[in-house]
Amino acid sequence: MPGKVYLIGAGPGDPGLITEKGRRVIAKADVIVYDYLANPRFLALTREDAEKIYVGKKGGDHTLSQEGINQLLVEKAKEGKTVARLKGGDPFLFGRGGEEAEVLVEHGIPFEIVPGVTSAIAAPAYAGIPVTHREHTSTFTMVTGHEDPTKEDSAIDWEALARIGTIAFLMGMKNLPRICENLLRHGKPEDTPVAVVRWGTTPRQKVVVGNLGNIVAKVEEAKLGPPSIILVGEVVKLREKLNWFETKPLFGKRIVVTRTRAQASQLVESLEECGAECLEIPTIKIVPPDSFEPLEQAIEQIETYDWLIFTSVNGVQVFFERLFARGKDARALANTKVAAIGVATAELIKKYGLLVDLLPQEFRAEGLLEALLKEELAGKKVLIPRALEAREILPEKLREAGAEVEVVPAYQTILPEEEATRLKKELEQGVDVITFTSSSTAKNLLKMLGDEARSLLSEVVLASIGPITTETLKKAGFTPQVEAKEYTIPGLVKAILEYFRA
Fold first, then answer.
1. Residues with catalytic annotation?
2. What are the residue boundaries of the Tetrapyrrole biosynthesis uroporphyrinogen III synthase domain, all occurrences included (predicted)?
3. Are residues 35 and 78 in the same domain?
4. Residue 32's closest CA among 43, 41, 24?
5. How many domains does the chain have?
6. Please, which pLDDT band fits residue 62 given cuts at 50, 70 and 90?
7. Residue range 431-440: mean pLDDT, rounded
């Protein structure tokens, strides 16, 4: 039986503008076929075993011809696979989705269309330009600007087009002089406002505003190229009043997030909400320990422990997975007190049906230790499921207080060496900030950069989640310019915002 192909509109660039259905299909697909304009962040939604195939088209440079793409979709579907074909914008708006669908019909391949937000409307919206407005125009049209300028007879009715209130040209940057010339020749006034929006809806967005008489010169001066939307009409005048996206506090800042991809979402979403472009380049990878036997032995006798201490969300996840696998649940902890470092760790514990008994005000080992030492610990049995390698201050001080402490590895962190090349490439292209949410992320990033660390980080703002991570960076010879006052993700974002406001 053949598989199925989904032709998905991936939206204009902002990853938040893809539809919910599009996300669901990407998450379940066996094969992802994506192009130049589909945000690479969508690949993080895929299954680990999904096949990812890039077929991008950029300025006439085709990785795979359209015929080749058509054949690829057919071949993968005939293998019985679910294929997600990601196309920038909407698949049926100048996206050749109709051609791909026709080929699928010819070969008897089931398919679905998942519409997407088109850049013809979204890019102007992010530039503060509504394509229609009661006081300016009630007509709007979209035109391909990609028509061959050497054609003797244009397929575009320029006389009719010149009477439309707002016109959006897609893929028209090479033909901008000809577009302006034709509109002027067919009756559009020379002072008709024009906006050119490059990389609309992304933190790389750049807008040039002029009119039909001077926009070509202005675009050349600004060195604007594709991918861009050309918008013609009186509504362009509203940009000065309605520009909202480019006023965000971190607009245009490129920020590297070094957390694992599984944990990066809150930080990425918060930074993007402030206008930043986030580059997810994990410098740590969470993997199982060499053996779960010590943890499982502890779980078998979990009822005998007086205290269970969690120092990270990773430890919480692994502990409860192994607890449930052993046929136990939260009731096994009825007589055990639970302590946690940090709000995020405590919130995750709550999702497993438990409220923490102890949450320090200072979210680090020293803060938890200060709170625990106020308890009667002599003779108490304490279990700490944590990373294989971690600071020893907590178990050491608890033992000094008379507690019987057992530390068991729940996971270990390793260096994702495959990310090193990409990290160096992004730093060479220009990065404004690197965020560090633990000492491990800092140590590993410096290992990944090696001897090039000093030169590659010389112009980059280093942002630390707290004093322990800061100390790790300082010992390596790098003093972070930003340190969170509250050692949490919201605290780190707040500190970055305060730094740039200052």
1. 35, 57, 171
2. 266-493
3. yes
4. 43
5. 4
6. low
7. 95
